[in-house]
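S., here's the first fold you wanted:
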Amino acid sequence: MIDFSKISHVWMIGIGGIGMSALARYFAAGGFLVGGYDRAESSLTGALISEGILVIYKDDPHEIPGDFLREDKTLVIYTPAVSPYNKISTYFREKGFRMHKRAEILGIISRKSRSIAIAGTHGKTSVTTITAHLLKQSNIDCSAFLGGISKNYRTNLLTGGSNITVMEADEFDRSFHYLSPEMALITSMDADHLDIYGSFDNMVKAYVEFAGKIKNDGILILNEKIAGSFCKPDNIKIYTYGLNPASDFHLSDISKDNDVYSFSVTTPWGIIDELSLLIPGKMNVENSIGAIALAKLAGVSDKDIRKALFYYKGVFRRFDVRINSDRLIYIDDYAHHPQELKYCIESVREFYGKKKITGIFQPHLFTRTRDLADAFADALDKLDRAILLPVYPAREEPIEGVNSGMICDRMKLKDRILAEKDDLPALLKDDKSDIVLTLGAGDIDRLVEPIENILLERLG
């Protein structure tokens, strides 16, 4: 166990990641001196710097201030997203510093608090953020580590006065196996990270193992779509949620008036009616049901749930409506798995009707592109026009023959094109679609504001 009383400095390798930046803020809020390395400047690293956290972009130990180079005072936290062979990692490892994965630190936090962990191949960031918001706006309160930037709080870290911690449980590299939650929710289990797990069956076993980490007499909530195929531990209480009336927490009725969903949720203790959600997409209604289940089981009143949900604004890059006019709609979404793409596009169709949709998609990871090319093609075929950007490699080296063309070649949609980022201004200037989507988990986020400006110019 780490003795935090003997630590004054925290150095983070990969500080600009969404999970790492939340931890950086957590330690800074706790009075530690925090610094870190990331390979590129971003809006997140800029925000950290403005908050007094040191960030360097050169992979050179000589760039690290001497105060962080004391082995007895510094804790080093790293993410598997950064190569263990980079120079800074190698330096700390060879000098014998205490080095811990981000997941290990979250595991310690989860064991020291009444933690609520949300896992799943898609939907977990939204459910985590809605859950934290419902608790935060009640007398229960919470702290939270979010996998995105909340629009309500404009941060990915919430601090509170209670002993409840809401956290996103990351399945990559089996990181969620470090957690010991009191309550957990699993949104989905679609094939992903097969470079880590080797097969879908092994991935499912990893989720079952995660469920086994729940504390005795704890609670597991499962999306009803996966409940039938999930091996359930005996020492915990199981609930289901979803749109299906057979679920323990389910949608009772729903209507849409302009841009507002109105609905009710049936729970084991009665119906919570007069709920309103201002975020488009029925997938977000489903995510809200999961969050409501967690909040209800944590002790939040129906009245507080009703009020907080109405004021929920969403998450940046999660069905993020950037332009909403009669002539043009622009939505940015983090969708990077075929099922996420399918849900996103279907939600747009359901919410906005028969408008023409152009989707700009940046595949994320060579291995994911290779393993799921057919499914990506099938999802993107639901667009009216598709623009595919080059694969964003993230932590991976290129794989020969694996590129965006693998997806494009498998698509049936006639209006599709492979493009570079520099091609987008001209392509969008001539685009006649009613709706434009940007989709992906790579550096496509850096194109959001430029694309928004191009589209606003088109509107005049």
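And the second, which I think is the more interesting of the pair:
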Amino acid sequence: MVISVREDVFRLAEVFTISRGSRTEAKVLTVHVERDGVTGWGECVPYARYGETLQSVAAQVGGLPPEIDRAALQDALPAGAARNAVDCALWDLAAKQAGKRVWELAGLAAPQAVITAFTLSLGEPDAMEAAARKHAHRPLLKIKLGTPDDMARLEAVRRGAPDVPIIVDANEGWTAEVYSDLAPHLLRLGVQLVEQPLAAGADEMLGEIARPLPVCADESCHDRGSLAGLTGKYDVVNIKLDKTGGLTEALALRDAARDQGYGVMVGCMVGSSLAMAPAVIVAQGVQVVDLDGPLLLAEDRDEPLIYDAAGVHAPAVALWG
């Protein structure tokens, strides 16, 4: 088997801003695994928050033995972007070799279209109000927050989209005091869920203060090993394949989280349809889906996922799986 990795860049439709910074393009790594003339592929988005760079992740992939399989991969690499791209490529390869879809190999029902959130990036209140009005036809909006001036932004988005369900993502940007002050207003404005209000590793206060609306662990939850540290602090876990290290662990984490009483959200980094394709499988039957990466791009893979009124659909064979 031959494993190769390359960098791909996709222009964003608009500047995308969170509390950590802004970007105008999505830089991803695409991994190909080829055996006996058949090629599977997967995508990952290295994330600086987790100490990853394009170069470090490519080096991890390049250091793998050529005949690695999915089982051995789980021990060969830690949960993260590198393992994700290789794991998903190996699933794609296996499906192509077997002449079946990935969900068949995993013993799952064929995935149905799922409604996804659409993310509004962080901006000045007037700009966020205008963006909310532009996207008020969406079934669910996600707002990037995490600054001292978030109340004005929340009010502005609600003015722009008065009837749309909203979830918010603080990206670790609040303190316990700020969150406690904001929580009643989040409820008043119809916010249904808040992601990662406090920094991972400094979120103990979530177990001591009131949680009047569901709190979702994002940066605090990577794989099944994270679950023990979430008890009493979080109500929902956000599963992202770039955190779990691939589809294999993402499916296992989904099942384990449900068994332990957590709600499940399936999210993404800003990547192409290739990155979202395996996540659609994980997103079946979960409470919240946030797989809008391709909707934020000005360009995508040649056979992109279909997004319509029913939501995001399962990938075509030509894309993945």
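Why I say that: The two ends are 18 Å apart (CA to CA). The mean pLDDT is 95.

Talk tomorrow,
H.
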